[in-house]
Structures are given as structure tokens and as C-alpha cells.
């Protein structure tokens, strides 16, 4: 199209110019003839010349542009480089947080709840006063027991004086030996009565002490179960308040019985670290140590119960909470790792997609040594530094062209 326009623009100029004189073909042109011939060439406008040049460049680059247009766009993916690092061997399962010690505080004597001395949610120490039951009936019982002892002590003193008199008379045959024996029995009986009085006094003192309810452990009190003014009984199963020790706190979780040898081997080497993670396994709530395993395997489930201890200084663990507990029983040094999401499962086993320098992918079979759901340890198939696809695998096949949207270097 540009050439035709150029011809139409040039041809009118050719008709206006006079025809050139014919000269012999073999005759050389003089200098003046060359100048005349140059002057007789048609004048091309600059605008048409630039268009013609652009058309020539487009024609020359046509095959390359056509080849580039024929290539499909790359499939968008995310990729991450395989790394060499140390990876802990964690045995994980869901665990339940339990208070280290838990007490349901109950009344030990019957009576009216007079006062409550704690605030719900308060931290208390062993020996702190929690509540007071009306002590007046038990104070009266103590005074009664003490009075009875005083009366019995007076009887004992009189019986001992009678025994002395009967003994002197019996030596002079003014009293029978039977009277002396009877008086000895009376003295012994009175002494036993006083011993019973002492026991009654101790019981009365204990009941009076039980009217003041104290905390048996360090911990945090819960919600109050009985309000002041209520009549409470020692035989009642309902308590006044519960106390849970949360510093330290415990986590109980189970593992398959096949993991028991690994656990025992790790405990023989030293303290076994334990992590407590959130339900989504993204946040480490606390770090502690393994205390012990249960003394028997649950035959119905084939699992063993384990108990771990956590300092819980920041109160991130709470009784009744469910966490993901993991015991570190070993450490793999300098192993090749990839994100767990990069590993795919196919009919021929596990594989990953490797990103090649030409922006295509290749399917690579792999063997795993460990996969904890976040990091997969590669035993065979991937070298450190190689890019593996972590997102978008569903649209890929061997040789697909890709566009890496997000890349994480090693």
C-alpha cells in the first residue's frame, strides 16, 4: 500500500519533466552529464520515505513477530528454591492442656457460709483464706469439751485420794483388798475418760479450724459456686470454688505405640523439647519439656499417653485448651527441604515440578524422608537451589511454559 502511494505521488512529476536525450550506451558520461542526470531524478517527499522505511522494517521482522505471537502465554505459578537446612524430627498430635494440679474446695463441716474472702479469677497461694463458715456452734462445742475435761479431772483427783486412803487401811487390815482393787479400777476409768475428753477437745478444735477454709495449693480460683448465706454441708458434692495451678501447666497428648522406642531413646539422651502450637499450627504458643510417658499402652487404640510441662509465664496456655503438641526426638542435619505444598502425589508416586531456565517445567519424581505438613525433607530427586512450583500445579504438565509470579530464593 505504501509503495502504490509513492508511485502515484512520483509519477506526476515524471510527466512534467522533459525527456532525457538519448546517448550511446558505451559512451562515458562527462561530469556535466552526471550532474544533469542527478537533477533529472524524481524528488521523493520525506514523509513517504519514512513510511517506506517503516514498511521495510516490518516486512523484515515479520517472521520473528509471527513466531512470537504463535507461542502461548505462560501459566502463572509461584515457586520457591529448595534449601539445605537442619530440620527437627517432631512427633505431633493434638493435645489437651491440663492444670498441673486442680482442687475443688469443699466444706469440711456443716454450717452457714458466712463470708467469701476471694475474688473470682484471683491468684492465690497455699494457706490463703478463701471463706468462713459460721464458727459459733463449733466454738461452743469446744468450750463444752473443755468443761467436761475439767470435771473429769476433778473426779480423777478424788479417786486417787481415795485409792491412797484405801491402800493405807488395807495394810492395817481396816479395809479389804477388794476395795483397793475397785478404787484402782475407778482411777484408771477416770484417766481413760480424761483421755477421751482430750480427743473430743481436739475434734472440736479441728471443726472450729475447718470453719475457716484456706487454699491448699497455689493457683487461680474460678467462678464462685456458692454465695454467702447459703447452708452448706460437708457431705455435699458441690464445692465452693475450684482452684487450678497454671504455673507451671501440663499438656497431655497421645502418640502411636510405634513411636515409643524413639521417645525412650530421646529421653535417654536428655530432656526432650516439646512445642505447643495453635490449632492452625502457625503460632508457637509455648515451649516446654517432656515429663513422662504413661505406664501402659492403651490396648483399645494402640496409643501411648505423654505428659509435657510448660512454664506458661505469659498465660498463653489455659486448662481445657486444645493445642498441637510436638515432641522433638531427633535433628536432621544439612538435609534438602522444600515446602510441603510443592510435593504432589501421582499414580507413579510423589513428584514435584521443577522450573527450568527456559521458563518451562519438568516433572521430577522424589523420595521423602519426612514431611511434617510444612517442610518436606527430600531424600532423593531435588538438589539445593532448584526452583520448585509451590502454587498452580493443577494446570501444569511436563513441559508447560510458566510465568513465575512469586519467587523465594534460597
Question: Secondary-structure blueprint of this entry?
Answer:
Blueprint: H1 2-16, H2 31-39, H3 46-70, E1 75-81, E2 83-99, E3 102-105, E4 111-116, E5 123-124, E6 129-133, H4 136-171, H5 177-210, E7 212-214, E8 219-221, E9 231-232, E10 241-244, E11 249-256, H6 260-269, E12 273-277, E13 284-293, E14 303-310, E15 322-339, E16 344-346, E17 349-355, E18 361-365, E19 367-371, E20 375-380, E21 387-391, E22 402-408
Parallel strand pairs: 1-22
Antiparallel strand pairs: 1-21, 2-11, 2-15, 3-10, 4-6, 4-9, 5-8, 6-7, 8-10, 11-14, 12-13, 12-15, 13-14, 15-20, 16-17, 17-18, 19-20
Helix pairs in contact: 1-3, 4-5
Question: Can you describe this structure?
Answer:
The chain has a 6-stranded antiparallel β-barrel with strand order 2-11-14-13-12-15. Strands 3-10-8-5 form a 4-stranded antiparallel beta sheet, with no helix packed on it. Strands 7-6-4-9 form a 4-stranded antiparallel beta sheet. It is α+β, with helices and mostly antiparallel strands and 410 residues long. 31% of the residues lie in helices and 34% in strands. A hairpin with a 5-residue loop joins strand 17 (349-355) and strand 18. The chain starts with a helix and ends with a strand. Mean pLDDT is 86; it is low at 12-18 and 26-41. The chain folds into 4 domains: 2-69, no CATH class; 76-87 and 333-408, Beta Barrel (conserved putative lor/sdh protein from methanococcus maripaludis s2 fold), CATH 2.40.420; 90-100 and 246-331, Elongation Factor Tu (Ef-tu), domain 3 (Beta Barrel); 104-242, RNA polymerase II/Efflux pump adaptor protein, barrel-sandwich hybrid domain (OB fold (Dihydrolipoamide Acetyltransferase, E2P)). The longest helix has 36 residues, at 136-171.
Amino acid at each position: 500500500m505504501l509503495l502504490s502511494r509513492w508511485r502515484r505521488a512520483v509519477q506526476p512529476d515524471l510527466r512534467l519533466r522533459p525527456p532525457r536525450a538519448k546517448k550511446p550506451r558505451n559512451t562515458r558520461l562527462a561530469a556535466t552529464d552526471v550532474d544533469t542526470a542527478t537533477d533529472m531524478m524524481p524528488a521523493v517527499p520525506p514523509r513517504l520515505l519514512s513510511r517506506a522505511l517503516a514498511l521495510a522494517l516490518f516486512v523484515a521482522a515479520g517472521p520473528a513477530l509471527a513466531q512470537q505471537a504463535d507461542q502461548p502465554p505462560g501459566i502463572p505459578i509461584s515457586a520457591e528454591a529448595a534449601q539445605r537446612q537442619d530440620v527437627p524430627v517432631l512427633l505431633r498430635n493434638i493435645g489437651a492442656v491440663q492444670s498441673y494440679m486442680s482442687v475443688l474446695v469443699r466444706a469440711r463441716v456443716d454450717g452457714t457460709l458466712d463470708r467469701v474472702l476471694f475474688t473470682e479469677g484471683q491468684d492465690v497461694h497455699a494457706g490463703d483464706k478463701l471463706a468462713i463458715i459460721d464458727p459459733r456452734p463449733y466454738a461452743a462445742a469446744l468450750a463444752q469439751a473443755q468443761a467436761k475435761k475439767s470435771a473429769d479431772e476433778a473426779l480423777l483427783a478424788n479417786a486417787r485420794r481415795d485409792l491412797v486412803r484405801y491402800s493405807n487401811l488395807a495394810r492395817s487390815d481396816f479395809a479389804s483388798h477388794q476395795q483397793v482393787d475397785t478404787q484402782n479400777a475407778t482411777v484408771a476409768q477416770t484417766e481413760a475418760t480424761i483421755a477421751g475428753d482430750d480427743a473430743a477437745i481436739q475434734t472440736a478444735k479441728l471443726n472450729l479450724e475447718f470453719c475457716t477454709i484456706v487454699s491448699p495449693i497455689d493457683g487461680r480460683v474460678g467462678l464462685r459456686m456458692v454465695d454467702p448465706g447459703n447452708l452448706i454441708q460437708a457431705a455435699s458434692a458441690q464445692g465452693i470454688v475450684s482452684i487450678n495451678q497454671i504455673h507451671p501447666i501440663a499438656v497431655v497428648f497421645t502418640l502411636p505405640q510405634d513411636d515409643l522406642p524413639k521417645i525412650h531413646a530421646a529421653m535417654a539422651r536428655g530432656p526432650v523439647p516439646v512445642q505447643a502450637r495453635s490449632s492452625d499450627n502457625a503460632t508457637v504458643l509455648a515451649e516446654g519439656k517432656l515429663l513422662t510417658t504413661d505406664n501402659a499402652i492403651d490396648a483399645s487404640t494402640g496409643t501411648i499417653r505423654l505428659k509435657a510441662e510448660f512454664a506458661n509465664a505469659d498465660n498463653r496456655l489455659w486448662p481445657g485448651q486444645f493445642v498441637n503438641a510436638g515432641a522433638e526426638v531427633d535433628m536432621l542435619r544439612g538435609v534438602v527441604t522444600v515446602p510441603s505444598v510443592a510435593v504432589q502425589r501421582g499414580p507413579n508416586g510423589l513428584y514435584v515440578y521443577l522450573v527450568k531456565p527456559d521458563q518451562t517445567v519438568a516433572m521430577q519424581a522424589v523420595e521423602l524422608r519426612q514431611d511434617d505438613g510444612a517442610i518436606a525433607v527430600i531424600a532423593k530427586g531435588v538438589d539445593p537451589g532448584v526452583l520448585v512450583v509451590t502454587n498452580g500445579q493443577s494446570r501444569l504438565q511436563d513441559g508447560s511454559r510458566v510465568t513465575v509470579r512469586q519467587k523465594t530464593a534460597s
